[in-house]
Amino acid sequence: MQDTPSSYSPWRTSVAPMMDWTDRHCRYLHRLITRHTLLYTEMVTTGALIHGDVARHLRYNAEEHPVALQLGGSEPADLAHCARLGEQWGYDEINLNCGCPSERVQRGAFGACLMAEAGLVADGVKAMLDVVDHVPVTVKHRIGIDRIERYEFVRDFVGTVSEAGCRVFIVHARNAWLQGLSPKENREIPPLRYELVYQLKREFPALTIAVNGGVTLNTQMADHLQQVDGVMVGREAYHNPWVMADWDACFWGAEARELSRESVERQMCDYMLREQAEHGTSWHSIARHMLGLRNGLPGARRWRQVWSDHRLRDRNPHEVMALAHEGSPSAATALD
After folding, report:
1. So where does FMN get bound (predicted)?
2. Percent residues over pLDDT 70 in the chain
3. Region 261-334: CATH code
């Protein structure tokens, strides 16, 4: 994890793993905006890696570093196999998902339901640590499950897993309700209880503790960093990626860069052409990740409409960018 001030934790700022969103194209966009923020893959299940196309799941762009692989699974041997793959592919971290509440994940006996089996999580962490040489193994989890709201529950979970060698915990400051709520509702309805995450840091000062959940503003991030080692941002970073433009200067002490939305968009066009040439990837599937790039600016709605229009798929992305910014009769004609 190069070019970051040594006094800062590598987990100081990060973008959360988000299914169907944080693929390698999304991460490439985010890296154009922030050089230092740690980026996470979507959750990749151990079954997908053991029985599926490894390259499809693990391929990433060299520019994405630092980048972490998040695994979903519970069998220690399977987790070890996949952690070894992650290190071989060059990921900077292996993260275990103990926070996802979806029914599909629960049927696989992993995700948030693993918080009820701290011993099994510890076994998985130890198995992964036994086979990797140079990358940290971390855990992302909730503060509790269902109606278990006692601090002692999450404290004991962290204590047990840390004894297996895990030194980094990313804590979503909400309970996960395993029954009765959708994943979306689980991100909104259980109340945020940041004080429990702060208490974990006080009780385990030698561990790295990062907080996740409900963070949308740089001022909130700064407040959290007075209490914990890092802040992970999820949906806000995806829907409003320009929020990250100040992170390197604000939170990493880096010199401010000359950076504009247009320059990022132009670089994404170059990337789309490269992806199309090397992998046959449609630029349309890449452009969806940058539709929030101009949030709040005049003309943003029309800009999104142009980039989303399937009738322009055969155009060079630089031409599409020109149309999106034109707002002229020729642009309108292209959409008629």
Report:
1. 17-19, 70, 140, 172, 212-214, 234-235
2. 93
3. 1.20.120
